[in-house]
Amino acid sequence: MKSKIITAILCMVMLIQVFATGVGATEGNDILISKYTQSVDSIKTNDTFTINGFIKNISDNDIKNVYAVINQNASFSVVSGQNIIVNIKDIPSGNNDDVTFTTPKLRYSGTGNELSITFKYKYNDNTSGESTCTLYLNTVPKSDNTDSNTFPDLDYFKKLDPEISLFGNINMPTGTAGRSISLSLPIKNISSYAAENIVVSLSASGENSPFVFKTIKPSYNIDKIFSGKTVDAKFDLDIAPNAKAGIYTLNISYRYANGMGGVFTKDNADTIQVKVENNSTPPRLNLSKIERNPQTMEQGKTGKLRLSIQNGGNTDAKNVKVQLSGLSSEGFTIANGTDVKYINNIASYGTGIVEYNLACAKGMPSGNHPLNLDIAYKDEAGGEYTEKLSFFIPVYKSGEQGAGDANILIQNVKSPNGVVKVGQDFSIGFDVVNKGGAEARNTKISISSEAGIINKTLNTVMLSSLKPNERKHLDFVMSSTGEVTTKNYPIAINIEQDKNSATQYVGVYIENPEKGSEGGEQGDPSIPKLIVDQYSFEDSNVKAGHEANLELSFLNTSQKEVVRNLKITFMSDDGTFTTVGTNTFFVDSIAPGKSIKKQIKLAVKPDAEPKVYPISIKFDYEYDKNKTAEGQEMISIPVEQEQRLVLGDVNIPPDVIVGQPVPLFIEFYNMGKSVLYNLMVRVDGDFEGQKPTYFVGNFEPGRSDSFDGTITPTMPGELQGKIIFSFEDAAGNQMEMEKEFSMDIGEMPPPPMEGEEGMGEVEDDHNTKFYKKITPWQWALICVGIAGIIIGIIIIRKKRLKKKGAMFDEFT
């Protein structure tokens, strides 16, 4: 009998060993737990332990993204702080090798021995599957003496952790600097218990985070998430305008309760990555316009100065401080007010205005005098910037040339908005205003353009008089012929008045469907097209070596599609033009059929020849739900060379007598880079006989020449005269330069009286020889005069021979 009891005990021990290395029962057709082991052989009440399992793929399909979920129950629970999810590698079909996994730490309640584990995965076609395996663990239940109606104590229930976490494969959110981004985070309860009073909060990971939090830790509250359910936590975050492009990490923390008195906090339990893009440019302030009233200041008087400050960046400039410097008691001073002005904000591509009342010192020299503008400002993120800009103000003495000159400007130019069809009439209107201090007489205004553009009104308008600050409006009706192609045509507005001239250009986009564009390409009609429908320069010609403000209007010709995220790039293929600052700027959007205006400052290279140059404008943009497109426009800009005719001194003999021929001599040089056309030299003054002239013709750059002529004064005393040089530039504008001279004219000595000493006996006039009537003193004066004439003739002859020799060399 005793031996039978021992045998039974040994059998029970052997069964326990078998269960310690068991095989799991499987619900499903894909995964099998082939065997498993317990970290504790006999699991007692409140023991913690892990299971090390071995699984196989018994299906005909490859499975991937495999993970196991521990199904907690009344017998077994996951220890607080442990993750109930176990990630497992991909398992191909037919894999005979066991794949291992280890559970998180589990706690035994003291009753039962069944533990189920659910395996979730995806097939190659991205459909989902799952299999559940049940393990029968080797446990030691509570003593049979324990009251079966006794429930676990309260601390046990408080420790039951409803595990929540970020769930699923989330596409990386993308935000833009200076804007807000909305995040929707799926939070899933992956435990067997409901979670309630959930608070999901975000925090920045690392330094230099681009996110701007309105609270220390933005949070989202959720009332309850039942077992296996998912609820989205939603956040709206601002991204700093100066954020650098890159990928940034946000930490996700949780605080929640289990409804049984247990409260759980899990800091930085999950993370999410956010991509930030930044297409913005920082604010950049430039002096875009200078207005003076009066246009030129006089010594001892006051005037108003109005300065336009433009923001060339696509972010706002804030807290702008503008200080006028270069002031002094001997020059400009502030007549009233202060030299410091403040502007709260200058929006992107916007303009701010400051005004000063200036006083000009009485002893201030004539000419252009510099002033500086010191600008300090901040961007939206508090970054600081400074600019120092210089400009000049002309000053003249009262009554001096310039203080009272007329100054004709073209303002308020109006031209067609949008596309003009071939043959359709259009109007060019503008104001002609005299900003000078004197009346402008005989002002000539004309319109000109390329072949195919015709003027249906008078080509030329003459304004007989335009008083200071007077303004007259003019309109010209234009049209086009069938020979035009589809492109932007520059139209020149020409002003000629006295010695002054100016030309301003506007662009008109003309469409000829029969000829298309110059390149002959026809675009997809479904793609919105951008064109430059207008462009003009600000109150001046475009001169080589100078800067010019170009104002353009960009039109969205589509009637349905909005153009978004527009990038505009300016290119001068031959390098004639460079942009002051960046050659690229951005526009958020242009509505269908609408246009926007932008200004860009161009610098012209000093040695540019006087002719018309092209500028290419490239467009890159989006439309219709992120579809992309590009285009290119070309505009024509006429460039003029500044004329630099340099005049030498006028050479005049020291002693000049009434009635005697006087030789004049002056050298002149073309120090500019353009030809002076039809150069004529002439002399003007109170002289006897024909006034000398010299036609030089076309005077090339780098060439020198001289003028010599003879005049005969008719009156004694001071004689004033001038040598006038008149010529035309490449545009046909008439110009003049003058060189003044003066000389003291002596009187011719009177003839001698009878009985004068040294003359001897007086004879009858008919019998006395002529030479006997002239005294030695008179003979000396006559010899000097004859010598002067001979010398003048020799000089003139040599100069003419020299000039003929040079001309002979040029032709040979």
Oligomer: single chain
The overall pLDDT, averaged over residues, is 79
The rough form would be described as: elongated
The number of E-state strands comes to 56
Tell me what portion of residues adopts beta-strand conformation. Answer: over 45%
**Unreliable stretches covering 5 or more consecutive residues:** 1-24, 144-150, 754-773, 804-812
Amount of helix: under 10%
Radius of gyration: 48 Å
Distance between the termini: 148 Å
Let me know the largest β-sheet. Answer: 5 strands, antiparallel
Q: What spatial order of strands do you see in the largest sheet? A: 2-12-11-6-8
Write a structural description.
- The N and C termini lie far apart (148 Å).
- Strands 2-12-11-6-8 form a five-stranded antiparallel beta sheet, with no helix packed on it. The chain has a five-stranded mixed beta sheet with strand order 14-21-20-16-18, with no helix packed on it. It has a five-stranded mixed beta sheet with strand order 23-30-29-25-27, with no helix packed on it.
- The chain is mostly beta strands and 812 residues long.
- It is elongated.
- It has three helices and 56 strands.
- The model is unreliable at 1-24, 144-150, 754-773 and 804-812 (pLDDT under 50).
- Strand 11 and strand 12 form a beta hairpin.
Q: Which descriptors apply to this entry?
A:
single chain; 812 residues; mainly beta; 5-stranded antiparallel sheet; 5-stranded mixed sheet; 3 helices; disordered N terminus; disordered C terminus
